[in-house]
Amino acid sequence: MPVLLPFRPQPQPRSLRPGAACCAFLCVSLLLIVSTASAQGGKAALPVMQIIEKWAPLLLTGFGFNILISALAMLLGTIAGLGLGLGLLSELSVVRRGSWVVTQVFRNAPWLVLLFFVMFLVPFQVTLFGLRIPFPDWIKATVGFALPVMANVAEVVRGAVRSVPSTQWEAAESLAFTRHQIMWRIILPQCIKRMLPPWMNIYCIVAMSTVLASIVGVSEMLTLTAQVHAAEGGRPELFAPLYGFALLCFFLYCYPINLWTAHLERRFQIG
Amino acid sequence: MTAAWTADQTIVKCTDVRKSYGTFEVLKGITFSVRKGEVICIIGPSGSGKSTLIRCINALVPITSGTIHVEGIDVTDPRLDKLALRRKVGMVFQQYNLFPHKTALENVMMAPIHVLRQERKAVEERSRALLAKVRLAGKEDSYPGELSGGQQQRVAIARSLAMRPDVMLFDEVTAALDPETVKEVLVTIRELAEEGMTCMLVADHIYFTDHGIIVEHGPPATFFTEARDERTQRFLSQVL
After folding, report:
1. Does position A28 have pLDDT exceeding 80, yes or no?
2. Is the pLDDT of residue A181 over 80?
3. H helices of chain A, where?
4. What whole-number distance in Å separates Cα of residue A110 and Cα of residue B211?
5. Residue A12: inside a domain
6. Number of domains, chain A
7. Which of A164, A168, A174 has the most B C-beta neighbours within 10 Å, making it the best mutation to test the interface with B?
């Protein structure tokens, strides 16, 4: 079967590169929004574009919240994932196996299930030494997203460290560096380049997944979109434009990141 | 290239060293010793266990049985302080194995600063001097990827020397180089030997030099029996 043939990357013709596809998609989605608006706009109600304009500040605040949750989840998940990834590479088999189990559990669980677990298992506040630390829903959601990020980052770290030739370890060992020093001073710095593209990929997926938080009641963009829709009387013709706006926001945010990732991948392949 | 044969203390002493990979025995009872200031060269075809032997000496490869002592340190001791051993033994590899994310100077400076915890300024001064010694002055800020094979290998030698080892192990250090650059590396090693550094070299190729040029080279199997150059033949007749 041709699909089983070895993959040979072929240079894409310039015109088919994502740049053109991007513009085409944007035009189509904009047209869609405007056309549904003009076709279905009632006489008494405001035109669709004005409604979006009216609510845009609120919706964009919600979108900012999505970005905040994704960034914090990524930060938490990366720190934890680095630790877990180093656990996967530990010399102690107990640590290695434990880390492997944790990684596999969180990598192979649906994100929404993990989110539900964190939402309902973590209390809304914790009292530590008489100090009350509240855990609002959005913090819990952030932790819920950080868990799969952690597991995926751990795999990225493990793969990158493994890809450094063993001769680097030999050379460093024969200079009397400790294992810890070799990892942090010699191996990991060489890995950053290799880890960056997959790490950015994970980020895009997290950013897009933050809308799942609407299911558990966090007032991020999708929740607000639904509320705006209801506030405008739940008119069915507003459905496509309002959600189209949300889609556009995510697209405009994630697409450049993906472009940049692809660019980095190409550059590192050559370099 | 022979160093003074003074009756000094033994630096490396191997007794009945055996090493097996699974059922395949690579080293079948090796016994020898190296005195301070000596230069020895282990030659033999590839796969004969030369590299394994040299890697056993700084505990990169654990041996199956026998004993190895380096300056009184028992390498086979289960409680061996590998770091203490490796501070005394420098090693240079076939593929240079420089750290690609660091400049030549940083490659040389790293171990003294982080392993020996020496003061940065003094280390930098000494490292620059070492790079000058291996004729790489002016290349301090170059990354390994910007240097030729011969230059990288000389950085690797400087990197090893920066730890002030008592013995230097050279594992087929010229095998990856083209004949033109072999000489610049060999000259560096010879200068080290002349300064009294104890050196162990592993090679599957012999270079015979005379008056600063490579007269003849070849694998050991043919070098001793089929030397063509008159100078090589004269030298061999004297030493064999």
Report:
1. no
2. yes
3. 18-40, 48-88, 93-107, 111-121, 137-163, 166-174, 179-181, 188-209, 221-231, 239-270
4. 73
5. no
6. 1
7. A174
Does A172 lie at the interface with B, CB-CB under 8 angstroms? yes
DSSP designation for A127? E
pLDDT digits (tens, 9 = 90+) for B48-92: 888 899 999 999 999 999 999 998 899 988 899 999 999 999 999
Residue of chain A whose Cα is closest to the Cα of B112:
A175
- Reported ipTM: the value is 0.85
Residue A183's CATH number: 1.10.3720.10
Query: Which residues touch A32 (CB under 8 Å, ≥6 apart)?
Result: A240, A244
CB A140 within 8 A of CB B66: no
Nearest to B114 among A170, A173, A181 (CB): A181
Is the Cβ of B95 closer than 8 Å to some Cβ of chain A? yes
Query: Domain residues for A184?
Result: 47-121+135-270
A174 touches chain B (CB under 8 A): yes
Distance between CA A257 and CA B24 in Å, rounded? Answer: 53
Whether residue A211 lies inside any domain: the answer is yes
User: Is B160–A189 a contact, with Cβ atoms under 8 angstroms apart?
Assistant: no
**Residue A38 belongs to some domain of the structure:** no
Q: Which 1-60 residues of chain B touch chain A by CB within 8 A?
A: 58, 60
What's the pTM? 0.80
Q: What tokens were used for A68?
A: 């905040």
Q: Do residues A87 and A95 touch, judged by C-beta distance below 8 A?
A: yes
Q: And the tokens for A57? A: 């500040």
